[in-house]
Specification:
By secondary structure, the protein is an alpha+beta fold. Helices cover 24% and strands 43% of the residues. It contains three helices and ten strands, in the order αβββββαβββαββ. The N and C termini lie far apart (60 Å).
Length: 164
């Protein structure tokens, strides 16, 4: 049986290591590139009987000490039956045309989050993404969820979802 002095010394050593690990983790909190946020608003419109557009407005923050450089933005939905559909992202120029032609979408509030965009450290932004889906509008309107996936050039991924 170890002596009480040895047990106290061992306990103090474990506590010192735990404090050191906590200090290191605290000091590195801004070193992890990520985005935090969520989808604020989703709108849909039918282009024809077999294709529709979904517009997702979202807000996110970059809590890191480094910029988040966007590699790609993807939009997916899960329909009422659990099927997953991938949307084709629409460019900013074409998004402007979609808003001009389909008045049912309302006003374009935010800039589109595009490949190559940089999100500054410790900043918060409102952005949007428009995507075309090869499904009727009723599928988009009856969806279980929509997910916006933002990938960073170094591999970090942020996902913002909205469920019904």
């Amino acid at each position: 049986m170890p002596s009480k002095g040895l047990l106290y010394a061992f306990g103090a050593g474990v506590a010192a290591v735990a404090v050191l690990v906590a200090v290191i983790m605290y000091m590195q909190r801004g070193a992890h590139i990520r985005l935090e946020g969520g989808i604020q608003h989703v709108r849909t419109v039918a282009m024809d009987d077999y294709s529709s557009v979904l517009v997702a407005d979202f807000r996110f923050a970059n809590p890191a000490d480094y910029p988040f450089v966007v590699r790609r933005v993807d939009v997916t939905i899960v329909d009422a039956d659990g099927h997953v559909y991938d949307g084709a992202s629409i460019s900013e120029v074409d998004t402007l045309r979609v808003f001009e032609h389909y008045k049912g979408l309302g006003q374009k509030f935010n800039d589109t989050l595009l490949m190559g965009d940089t999100v500054a450290p410790h900043s918060t932004e409102d952005r949007m993404i428009a995507a075309r889906f090869a499904v009727p509008q009723r599928i988009l309107d009856g969806r279980r969820s929509v997910t916006v996936r933002v990938e960073e050039v170094d591999g970090a991924v942020a996902e913002f979802s909205q469920s019904r």
